Amino acid sequence: MELNIQLFNKELIARKEQRLESHLKEVMENGISILRRNLKEKFPVKEEILKAGFFFHDVGKSEISIQKALYEDKKSPISHTHLSVIFFYAWLRDFLKKDLYELLQDEKLRIISFSILSHHSAPHRELENNIFSQILNKKIVIAKEIFDILKKYKFTLSEDTLKDTYKKFIEGYKENIYEFRFDSILTPKLRKNFSFFYNALVKGDWYSAIRTEIPRVKPAFEIIDPKVFLYPNKSKFHKYIYNTKDFKENILLELPTGFGKTFLGLAYALKTKRNKILYTLPVTTIIEDVYENSLKKYIDENQLEWYTSKYLVLKSLKKGDLEESAYLEAKYFEKSIIITTLDQLLFSFLGVDRYPLKEALIYDSCIILDEPQLYSPLMLFLFSEFLKDYKDDLNVIIMSATLPEFLKEKVKEYFIEPFDQHVIKSIFERFNRVNIDISYLGFLISNLQLNSELQKNLRKLLSQGKKIAFIFNTVKKAQNFYNSLPIDFPKYLFHARYIYKDRVRKLMELKNKLNENPIVVVSTQAIEAGVNVSFDVMFRELAPFDSIIQSAGRVNRFNENFQPCSVYVFGDENDYLPYKKELLKITKEILMNLKIRSELDLFINLREYWEKTKNYLYSAKEKANKLYESAKELRPFAIDLEEEKINLRDAYFKISVIPIQFYDEIKKLWEKYRSFEKKNFWERKKILTEIESYIVEVPFLGKIGNRNFKDYLQLEEKNQFINLKYDPVLGLLPEEELIFYF
């Protein structure tokens, strides 16, 4: 536990080809700049202490064994962050002339010191144990040269104070003294300031390390005037947004599919005068579509980006190599306008992984929550819980044609509905694009396959150049029906059970084929909001009523057919998976009595559906409340899990697998991965991304045939391989078609 100080007789470095002094100075300047850009109010410590917090973050690298490792380009024998924390408190003792125990109980200072301790990892509760345990029985030798660097930047510190502070830290940690434990001092009320400081420190450190200037990001509201893209004469809603100078209130908009909600939401967000706009959509395919075909027409790419957990794999498949800085800027919301999913916001609110790097940017933002009905009730309840804590620091607009009543009820005290119900109803009444036909209700998939009249009808529709969609509730049903269609049919199968590289390719193919008439597209719910296309006819398996309306929104979407187009509902409530049987029974009752004169009838019946199903939401509501309370108690510490490992959407457990036929390709990629040293983070990350492109997500089934599902799995090279046949046209096949036995 001894600390010695001696000359190193070499220049101190932060890493190969970067001097430690230069790095400390750059991070101090970067950190202050980032903090001032993002935080409106004054940070609650003196300016000198704030600067010191950034400057001292890597001072622990002055330990001589660490310096030797840096010069030899090897992994350091110990972490430097705990030594940086000790340096920081030693300087505070001399600067403030205060006792160490008094300083340790100052919550504002603990924000800074915990940021220093955790700036290379998620700020989780066990981090302190993991790091401080490294020096308990080590001889620590500090390079004397660091004191000259500190003095040069007016952070004067005596050697004796450092030695004494080090001794007290080691004793305090060994004896588990209250004042030395971060989890004894840090409290939930510190979270906001902690997020801002941690974010500024980590990003300031990154930009210095990769030798890049801090990006010049404009406040979102300065990027474009809404008058450029919003037309007030289109509707009362457009006129309302257009004429309102500034928005302070949060608003709810219920509008029909294809009404132009994207630009209404963007115009509202710009008029809130918030620093950042976070446009949330439920699926990556829509996010890419809104990015490429809507927002990019008006907004410079330097101010706009999209991000989901599949960002890196999709970008790599479509554009090849990607710069690390571009990935980090997308992942951590550095652009003025980010299109993302609600999942990403909830991960920040829950404190997942390095959450402050996103959360600091969520403060003073406007959130556009578009198509919320496509998220799980758990996610919507969870969002409404966290809204209570963040409501004063952001704005929200919620938009949907099928807005869940339970969500409206939950958030009503924080939102206004700018128009009376009769105005909303009059908008829906203007549209009459679809007719729900139940003549096939009760017919199972096997009945449809054998139905010669149906095939005859399909041939007639195809001869008329129609685009036809069949939407099934499970992949297996979609695969079986696709195989049953005559070989001469222009047909295409699309669902979520493809490896990612095939899924990206198939989605691009599908978009191209949909521009050619005619076609029969066989799919699952994956297409409901995934493709911005309009079909002429749809066959939809019985599903919850909101899902049927969502699917119907892909029929005659742009009112290109003067007469309402048919949506045929087939299937039976007894074949209910993956939904609850009770929800399908309620839907069937509504469908049996449904008469459509306009889309107002769908709107009214949807409210009836929400009212009848609200009792089935209790478990999701309770779970959301428990998650919220647990996250509050944990603050400001993080949940030490990667966001990709957390699933808030599905009611059933999913597992990521790689079909066994790609085993040799994956083995070669792992060999390539191991050829890079651990510190070569970005090269390793790109290889893991390539491996991810072979992954397909499947529900964890109980049995396949007569065998247990787990018998088909083999964990190797950190990946689960599945011994089921994979076909690039059909996807992963559920039947017992084994090609290799483990």
UniProtKB/TrEMBL annotation:
> What molecular functions are annotated in GO for this chain?
ATP binding; endonuclease activity; helicase activity; hydrolase activity; metal ion binding; nucleic acid binding
Family listed: In the central section; belongs to the CRISPR-associated helicase Cas3 family.
Keyword ATP-binding applies? yes
Question: By its UniProt entry, which SUPFAM superfamilies does this protein fall under?
Answer: P-loop containing nucleoside triphosphate hydrolases (SSF52540)
Q: Which UniProt keywords apply?
A: Antiviral defense, ATP-binding, Endonuclease, Helicase, Hydrolase, Metal-binding, Nuclease, Nucleotide-binding
- Report any one BP term from Gene Ontology: defense response to virus
- Record-annotated Helicase ATP-binding domain positions: 242-421
InterPro entries attached to this UniProt entry: Cas3-like_dom, CRISPR-assoc_Cas3_HD, CRISPR-assoc_Cas3_HD_sf, DEAD/DEAH_box_helicase_dom, Helicase_ATP-bd, Helicase_Cas3_CRISPR-ass_core, P-loop_NTPase
Biological source species = Candidatus Thermodesulfobacterium syntrophicum
Query: Which Pfam families does this UniProt record tie to the protein?
Result: Cas3-like_C_2, DEAD
Q: What is this protein called?
A: CRISPR-Cas type I system-associated endonuclease/helicase Cas3
Query: The HD Cas3-type domain covers which part of the protein?
Result: 13-207
Q: Report which superkingdom the organism of origin falls in.
A: Bacteria
